[in-house]
Amino acid sequence: MSVTAAQGFTAAGIAAGIKANGNPDLALVVNNGPRLAAAGVFTSNRVKAAPVHWSEQVLRGGTVSAVVLNSGGANACTGPKGFQDTHATAEKVAATLGGEFNAGEIAVASTGLIGVLLPMDKLLPGIEAAAAALTADGGEAAAIAIKTTDTVHKTATVSQGGWTVGGMAKGAGMLAPGLATMLVVLTTDADLDSSTLDKALRAATRTTFDRVDSDGCMSTNDTVLLLASGASGQVPAYEEFAEAVRTVCDDLARQLIGDAEGASKDIRIEVIGAASEDDAVEVGRSIARNNLLKCAIHGEDPNWGRVLSAIGTTKAAFDPDRLNVAINGVWVCKNGSVGEDRDLVSMKDREVRITADLSTGSESAVIWANDLTADYVHENSAYSS
Length: 385
Description:
24% strand, alpha+beta, six-stranded mixed sheet, 15 strands, globular, five-stranded mixed sheet
């Protein structure tokens, strides 16, 4: 049930005509309270879309009563008109929902092609249609409406102790640290304030969405929101709540990698024996972004030399003569040289596990990536058409 698994939320997803193909393209998620607490994290790209600028301002107040999301257009690099359109979108949501709603508490998110203004003549009437379709089981429809090149919609939930965390995500390309090219809305009926939500969300994204690295490209529109309605009346311990948020984020992050454009392999890169967590993350990202390795994985070639060459480009502490690499459990490289017979490595399964041991310390990190395929090239060469 996605974002409506938690009590106190309604959602809808409709086709407003933003997409030329007529597919669903507009989603609305409403927090019916009694609490309207919220937190958010956004792309670290210095080029930010208009809805990111708007929603960053909204989140400074710690209160979000509704989120409107569109696919079919990113509203990025669209100048003052793009920001005016985002403002108008929030104003329309507030006016349509009526009552105590105001534009300053409406978050906006967009995804799609950069550099194209949104068709406001379709988007604004679509908001009225979405508001009319709001329902307590509308989470799945909302998740479907935010898809772009995604082949499946992505949802996850965790329930315990009388409270729930639910979420939906979109993303299939431009998946790189600084979040991913994602729109994510998480909801909970736990009764928590915005500062608690912010702490839990930042801790969760640091080890989940920020460690998904599909193609080394960072989006202009990344938005992850966490809304709390307080409708369950339950106040969970912080550690318990933070783990539930992390679990939902981890589930959604894995779904993003599993649906990455053109991918035929999901690559789990675990760096162990690092002097620091930062070193482990840097090495993991270098391995994840090595296109030669990604092509080798696609061809089911356990080419461990490409792993070592990727490690060698980092500033991490290590001795080249003490590096070890395993692929799917076979230590094909030991002490910086030839290890077990590479023919022992089976790479037929979808998931490929790479372990890089720096033999320097006790810290570790996991980065998820995927292979580089001709389908990925085709998807992105034909994207704007």
